[in-house]
Amino acid sequence: MTAIRPITGTNSNETTLRAIGISFVRTPTAAMLLLAVIAAMIWRASTGPAHWSDAAVIAALAVLRPFAEWTVHKLLLHGQPRRWRGLRFDPLAARAHRAHHAAPRDPRHVLTPPLVIVELIAAAWLATAWLPEPLDATATAAVLTFALTTEWTHALIHSPYQPRTAWLRRLARRHRLHHHRSERYWFGVSSTTADRILGTAPDPAATPISSTTRSVVGGDRGDAAVPTGRRGLSRGAMCSPDLDCLVDRDGCRGEQGEREHDNPLPAGQGRGVE
Questions:
Q1: Domain coordinates of the chain in residue numbers?
Q2: What does pTM read for this prediction?
């Protein structure tokens, strides 16, 4: 997956939304999606004035978005390698996502690879081609915008930024549970709606700690165990007093030294502003 320039220097501005946003848009992943969104909007504008049907399409896609995100995350990104007639099928998107789970703090694996973005843009165009003009352009622009905002949310969650809003804190807490409690739950990145409706948002305290959060492959069978830290907490878990501990307070305290090493900011420089 694509790297975000690490924002762990000594300048306090490097943990603000603005600094992280600039770093984000400079990545190939974000730049490609942004250009695709602009192109789709120009395409829509060239077909005539907006109509109420455009709003209806956008609203319908917004309702479907959490479930599409959940499906892609669970079935594609967490998909197992398959063999058929001697051929091995293991999409780049799934391989890149496993690298992200293996090292969730590594900025090189935070964003979707550019080649997968090309596939995503093509898929968005094909999936909306059945709509009459100009609604096909509207739908394409909406889908690509949703993809861009999901990438941004994911990047922000994995950055040193400390969220101030309850909404972003909730998303960050749930995503950390996915990485460090159990990879079988909490698939939503930009929304928790699908997880709540589809039964993948259990009580964290009642959820067993998975030994395969770092490997993902074979997770449900338990045949790909990975090393874990004290009390089963995955090594390098991203606990924070602001986001609550994900396993237990002692487990968080046991990881304190590693967290400081991963994010070597002087005291008081780890909080951004919104």
A1: 12-262
A2: 0.76
